[in-house]
Fold:
Amino acid sequence: MSRMAATRDGYGEALLELAENPKVVVLEADLGKSTKSLHFRKKYPERTVSCGIGEQNMLLVGAGLAASGYIPFASTFAIFTERAFEQMRNGIARPNLPVHLCGSHGGTHTGTDGSSAQSIEDLAIYRALPNVIVMHPCDDTSTKILTKQLPESGKPSYMRTARNKTPVLYDGRENEIKIGRGVVLKDGDDVAIIACGVLVHEAMIAAEELSKNGMSVAVIDMHTIKPLDTDLIDKYSSKCGAILTAEDHSIIGGLGGAVAEHIVSTNPVPMERIGVKDRFGESASSEEMLEMMELKSHHICKAAQKLVARKS
Amino acid sequence: MSKSIAELEEMARKCRIEICKMTHRAQAGHPGGSLSEIDILCALYGNRLNVRPDEPKWEDRDRFILSKGHASPGMYAVLAEAGFISNDDLKSYRVKGGVCQGHVDMKWCPGVDFSAGSLGMGLSFGMGNAIAAKLDGSNRTIFVMVGDGEIQEGSVWEAAMAATHHELGNLKLFIDCNRIQNDDFCENQMRMFDIPGKWASFGWAVKEIDGHNMEEIVSAIDWMDSITDKPVVVVANTVKGKGVSFMENNPGFHGAAPNDEQLAQALSELGVSA
Structure:
């Protein structure tokens, strides 16, 4: 059994390691205990700015710091970052200021807090903003490495992390992780599953199950939704001739949307999307939510089989 | 730097002329709020801000954040007076490719330190600048200007609360209280009652002045500089459209340009001989 960890813990660890750069500052909106920026705050209180429960102010304080040469990392729940969307749009993305926003507790996997806390549209809205890097890593190792790569990007970013633990997939594969580059976790020829976040693990299980029936399935971790690794998508749409996307996010505008937008003008192979079907969630455990939203490995298997049928 | 009161008043008169010309040329823009803010902008750029027109991105410059970014003609006029841009640049106001974008933009215009255009954002941004200055151990000062209608935006009060929590004595705010917003008088749109009292209750040091009396403005800036343990706000009572009779207190000139005839009258009132 793999090690279990939550991506938000990877974020917290990355901040601690980034602290050796004196320009790195952390901004909080009363959820540092949850997003895991609290470790930085405890060790570097002089470089941590409490913005109270005020997300709009927090993002623009970040913009002001970035414009003065600092590298701000601001975090809150994914859903509450959305409250400050226009600040992100007009105050950060438009002047291209390198403020790094982390939205934790993203997706229906967030669980029992219920629909008000389950952001299912964050990837879609931030992806629509010019200049902004958008990521949703699948484990704590990749979250940590991707977070640490952000300062050198010099661009604003949004990264979604998850509240609950999932199996770690990258231990020993750290050097494969790079912003903007998808990772082929498992190779295959019949269908390529392009997944992000907590559904990468579900995709791996599905690929394993499908192989028992003789189907050869590739699994790609597309941790960066923007800029999208279009070369890798082109390679696998040619190689497999069928694409299946999987995300704990609305089927509208997220990873599935991004991939579909790309292949429609390059190589429009048969495609299916696993995602939240334009509805809100409710209170239930993470596993129950994935089942309810039809995001489990068996749902992925069914969609893959449908794709293979469409191919012939 | 260090202009006399008379020189600052003359600077403001020249800026008023450019505000009218710019909006007339573009047949768009916001003359009213530009004319109400301009005396304060001239006092800051003419007499106070430690900035370098030949090195606009100099790291340790004081900052001036115009949050009410629609009042950009005033900002551009004063930047031209201060030598950041040329008088010729003023002709690019709202013109494709021009440094003088419709709303002030740090990516387009030298001397502009904030990309404005959406109300309620500048004070938070200035707060970030102020925290950065403290982290740098610098004594540079951050000035911000908001409009009175603008403080109806809730996020302004997030910043108002946070700035005192963080004891930002290097953060200085002007409120251009010209009593008119886009659609009508503030009184009719959203009554704000005791504006100085609201800021005082958030822990700010507050002073109220006549925003067109240059002596009062200059001494208010000295007062702002004297307070270093908390943020300060000067509530400047101004007249929208100040200096052009038919624009004064006229909600119609919040976002409308003068026509040919009106420009001629405005320039005449501002002492330009025909």
In short: The mean pLDDT of chain A is 97. Residues 297-311 of chain A form the longest helix (15 residues).
